[in-house]
Amino acid sequence: MANHKSALKRHRQSLVRRQRNRMMKTRVKNVIKAVNAAVAGQSADEAREALHVAVKVIAKAASKGTLHKKNASRKISRLTRKVNGVAAAS
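Below the sequence we write its predicted structure tokens.
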């Protein structure tokens, strides 16, 4: 690690950002699991509610730079297709 004042500050900032990114990625994974659980339970209403929450969380992660925008879009698209499949089946 460098001894320059600016390098020390940069290191502190990177630690804070790393923690924030890890927290956001964990939250994204948890909302995706919630949607998948609702889909597995064949509950269309629960799946729609979980999808609504998941889309907000994933879009926020993309806007903050934690996820790439195309990665976020792909996740949202896949979840939406699953939920629509459950709705069509019931």
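The CA atoms of residues 62 and 69 lie 5 Å apart.
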